[in-house]
Specification:
By secondary structure, this protein is mostly beta strands. It has two helices and 18 strands. Strand 14 and strand 15 form a beta hairpin. The radius of gyration is 22 Å and the shape is globular. The mean pLDDT is 97.
């Protein structure tokens, strides 16, 4: 777009358009249609003007849904029409306060992707994203970096299903009733290895028409990262500890519970120096679930992503960072300049047999349905129709339901297998 309109060098212009068809049969989540399909469209336009150290930017998102039949699982995750998700001012400073390095201060509406993105992220697979309003500061030194932020997450509107299915336009809003803040520091301990330490604070309270569970949470994380490179082992290992309080329900006067939970993620891999640039990895994710004890033990991933570690959102949305214990294997390859693919397999158990499995809303409070949720196979293939500009993508997921997803009291009836298919075309301009 920048070149097409002959924009000056200090003005960045870009955009994307994505069309996606999704279909699922025998969905394993409770409370959603067993079989469903629809089309989602997403258009984004980004502009940023620089005048010396000052930058002023904005980004418009238009997310819509079509051909969704009732009943439908569609909601605010699918539709956000004509929304200025970003509208910010930023200033870049060299050697601030005499410290060798570069600092950036940003204020307004913007996207946030912090560290591993497991707690704070701008979701990309989902048809809408997470926007944030507030302040952010970054410092990049010679062998370390620091990020700090204090924001209020944007509340996506519309949120009624009737308005969503009509693609109604309503501006998102911010409220001081929900606050998010934190910091992340990372340090290069070798040429290839980085250590990260993070803190995320989150606090919410009831607002008119928006009852909450009054979450007041502090999450501490530590991570070691060694990025993939040919003929080299790599690793991404992260541990998180969460503490605070949460109400037992969103009803007025609900009991306040102490909260304490954790998660662990590991991906250990190796990159081959073959023609396909193959990468294989072993995965393991453990995320705590609630039990019968006096404390609330279900880990809250807040605004974290799921696709890179688990599987897509959208119509599938079965697996996320909650009550799961899952090893797995993953293979990725780039066949040539146009084609690439990914295949993964994960058997899935509940970390706690008395809590709902991951994002399924399926639960057996007695624990008598066991703790094996099933087998998940996830495949993806992508093809650059026009290299660097237009890409086609296909995603297929098969879940062979285990005993828990078949026998739990509110488990959806139907086939033993869940099939999910997505066909996607994305244009970047």
């Amino acid at each position: 777009m920048h070149d097409a309109v002959a924009a000056p060098s200090n003005l960045k212009l870009s955009g994307t358009f994505r069309a996606r068809y999704e279909t699922i049969d025998s969905a394993a989540r409770a409370g959603v249609p067993r079989n469903e399909d629809y089309i989602t469209l997403r258009t984004t336009l980004f502009a940023e003007y620089a005048a010396g150290p000052l930058r002023i930017g904005g980004e418009l998102w238009d997310s819509r849904i079509y051909d969704a039949d009732l009943p439908s699982s569609a909601g605010a995750n699918e539709v956000n029409t004509f929304e200025p998700v970003q509208a910010y001012a930023a200033v870049d400073l060299k050697d601030p306060l005499g410290l060798p390095g570069k600092a950036t201060l940003q204020a307004g509406r913007f996207l946030l992707n912090i560290g591993s993105r497991r707690l704070v992220a701008a979701d990309d697979y989902r048809n809408t994203t997470n926007g944030y309003t507030g302040l952010r500061g970054d410092f990049l030194g010679r062998d370390f970096s620091l990020t700090a932020y204090a924001v209020t997450p944007q509340i996506r509107l519309p949120d009624s299903q009737a308005d969503v299915l009509d693609n109604r336009a309503r501006l998102d809003k911010e409220t001081n009733d929900t606050l998010l803040w934190g910091a992340l520091v990372d340090r290069n301990v070798s040429k290839a290895t980085t250590l990260e330490f993070g803190y995320v604070g989150f606090k919410e309270q009831d607002a008119v028409g928006r009852p909450t569970r009054d979450r007041d949470l502090a999450t501490f994380t530590g991570r070691v990262l060694r990025n993939p490179a040919p003929e080299r082992f790599d690793i991404d290992a992260e541990v998180g500890y969460q503490t605070g309080s949460v109400s037992s329900s969103a009803l007025p006067g609900a009991t306040t519970l102490d909260a304490e939970a954790g998660f662990f993620h590991l991906r250990a891999g190796y990159s081959f120096a073959d023609a396909w640039k193959s990468h294989v990895s072993f995965d393991y994710d453990w995320v705590e679930g609630d039990d019968s004890g006096p404390k609330y033990r279900r880990f809250d991933t807040l605004f974290g992503m799921r696709r890179a570690d688990f599987s897509p959102g959208g119509l599938y949305s079965l697996v996320g960072r909650a009550n799961i214990s899952s090893p797995g294997a993953r293979w990725e390859a780039t066949f040539d300049r146009r084609w690439d693919g990914m295949l993964s397999y994960h058997p899935m158990w509940l970390a706690s047999s008395t809590d709902s499995f991951s994002n399924s809303n399926v639960r057996d409070a007695t624990g008598r349905s066991g703790d094996f949720a099933g087998h998940q196979w996830d495949g993806r293939v992508r093809y650059w129709l026009v290299p660097g500009s237009v890409r086609l993508e296909g995603v297929y997921i098969l879940v062979n339901k285990g005993r828990f997803l078949r026998e739990a009291p509110n488990a959806p009836s139907g086939d033993r297998n869940t099939n999910y298919l997505a066909l996607i075309v994305t244009s970047t301009f």
